[in-house]
Amino acid sequence: MKKKLAFNSVIFDLDGVVTRTATIHAHSWKQVFDEYLKLREKRDGEPFHEFTYQRDYLIYVDGKPRYKGVQNFLESRNIHLPFGNPDDSPDKETICGIGNKKNKLFDKLLQEEGAEVFDSTVSLINDLKNNGIRVGVASSSKNCLAVLKSAHLEHLFETRVDGIISQKLNLKGKPEGDIFVTAARNLDSLPENSVVVEDASSGVEAGRNGGFGLVLGVARENNEKELAKHGADLVVTDLSEINVDLINDWFLRKPKDFFLSFEDLKKAPEIFPAEHLNGKKILINPYYRRSGKSIIDIKQKMTFFLDYDGTLTPIVESPELAILSPDMKKIVEDLATIHTVAIVSGRLREDVQNLVGIKGIFYAGSHGFDIEGPGGFSMIHQQAKKTIPLISLIIEQLKERLNNINGVLIEEKRFSVAVHYRKVKQLTDLSFIEETVNDTVQEYAQMRILHGKKVFEILPDIDWDKGKAVRWIMKALGLNWNSTSVFYIGDDTTDENAFRTIITRGTAIIVSDDISKISTADFQLQSPEKVKDFFEQVLAISKK
Predict the structure, then answer these.
(1) Is 307 annotated as catalytic?
(2) Helix, strand or coil for residue 258?
(3) Nearest Cα to 265, choosing from 53, 529, 507?
């Protein structure tokens, strides 16, 4: 009998993970680029500098969509060509033409040389499938299927999202996570319950940006630190070092107690050493993966993303009772005078703004669908906006269907509806509520369910969440992850997407008094009171 595992699917990158065609790719790129650079030397008198593996292929081309790779490299040489069209002939002097010339050469070399297969990867895939885990492949390459067929591996994968499919679906390339998210959805899985396996920096960054529960880096080029820096949670040199149990253990890990980990924030270590997971030594950076930086750098500004309910205020029976205490309000105000502060809540943006009542900070409401900040910053997710009439219809239906349930509370929002059952006493009533919510979501394919603390929330089935909202605010403010110490503090399952966005860039802290709590977060604080203690330490450091 197969044991129930804590993850559902694994998405593998192709080149460098399943097969090795990097040599063929690099050879193709070098021949095409060197020919073009020599043409410019002869025709235009430009000095010739050859295309190299270390300085050019790995930096500008590896892991990127083909045309993006052409553009990246040429711009690095201050060469600007028209993009052209995907059907440009290989002799046309456009981005597409050069990319197509490379592809034609790659196809020729692939037929002649074939693709090398990593047997350890195939072994892991078979082990995953034998344990009921669904497996897919995602690649920027338009040659993905040809490579798989050349190695007789296409039968291993239930879904394939490659450069051809990406173009049809208009998916963003790496480092955005679109191809991996699409593959997970094709496998009826969510990113948070899935694994990405990648060997390139842009790929592990895409896994992180996609909100995947585990981003596993495979360091084929002695690039362990580089993969960790860009977002790999675990780094191995070969997939023979990993197995189903190790992956499952990762999904069942628990955050560390923050105050037991650091007696003094100023002395927080720069980076955790390699730890042991299930008896095997693997490069694991459990809270902060940027070498040379500590958890708090007193020379830097800091950025704090804070949930409201259960983080700044205790959890209460009804949402309207969650009032920010004067002491907490004062300390958050003090924090905001020195550092960047944003409130990220499932509540309506206007409601949380009124409850917090602090000017000059960002507010992201409705799980990030509605964002407003000082200086005229504003964003309402346009896809979510289109679902407002449907949300109103669902609210009316839920009111009618749950009208006779004692203790149920339907919280009406613009972009979602929350069904609170904290006061519901009867188990039969609870079962009926859950059944009703599930039936409603099945009735409307555009909707999904978020499971929070004693609440079911129905919201648009859009690839957007608190983590995406955090990235939007960072970009809107022009904040660089490497030049600010970033924290996200939250208490609920709805904050896990933000934790996954933060953990390889900053510090994620969950607020919970449950010491057995399983969470993506790096650390744990037991209560909003402990959150206030943490803020006091930060302020004490900041004012010195």
Answers:
(1) yes
(2) helix
(3) 507
Dihedral of the CA atoms 296, 298, 303, 308 (nearest 10)?
70
Please check the confidence at residue 292 and state whether its pLDDT lies above 50. no
Assign 3 to helix, strand or coil: coil
Give the CATH number for residue 227.
Answer: 3.40.50.1000
The DSSP output letter for 2 is P
d(CA 333, CA 213): 33
Domain that holds residue 499: 302-381+464-542
Same domain flag for 519 and 392: no
Task: Indicate which residue of 307, 370, 491, 495 is catalytic.
Answer: 307
Residue in the structure block whose two tokens are 């009171």: 529
Are 504 and 227 in contact, with CB atoms under 8 Å apart? no
Residue at a domain's end among 226, 252, 278: 252
Chain position carrying tokens 């009804």: 318
The angle at the Cα of 36, spanning 33 to 38, to the nearest 5 degrees, equals 110
Considering the domain architecture, whether residues 423 and 499 belong to the same structural domain is answered as no
pLDDT tens-place string over residues 183-215: 999 999 999 999 999 999 999 999 999 999 999
Nearest to 368 by CA among 251, 238, 474, 517: 474
Q: Among the three residues 75, 92, 113, which one is the final residue of a domain in this structure?
A: 113
The residue written with tokens 């939250």 in the block is 490
User: Is 75 in the same domain as 191?
Assistant: no
- The answer to whether residue 41 is domain-embedded is yes
Tell me, yes or no, whether 122 and 245 share the same domain. Answer: yes
Ramachandran area for residue 271 (φ above 0: left; ψ -120 to 50: alpha; else beta): beta
Q: Is 345 found in the same domain as 414? A: no
- Are 136 and 235 contained in the same domain? yes
Give the sign of the dihedral formed by CA 241, CA 247, CA 248, CA 252. Answer: positive
* Pair 362, 475: CB distance under 8 Å: no
Neighbouring CB atoms inside 10 A of 280's CB total 11
Q: Which two tokens stand for residue 503?
A: 């953990």
Both 449 and 530 in a single domain?
A: no
Q: What is the reported pTM? A: 0.79
Judge whether residue 522 has pLDDT over 70.
yes
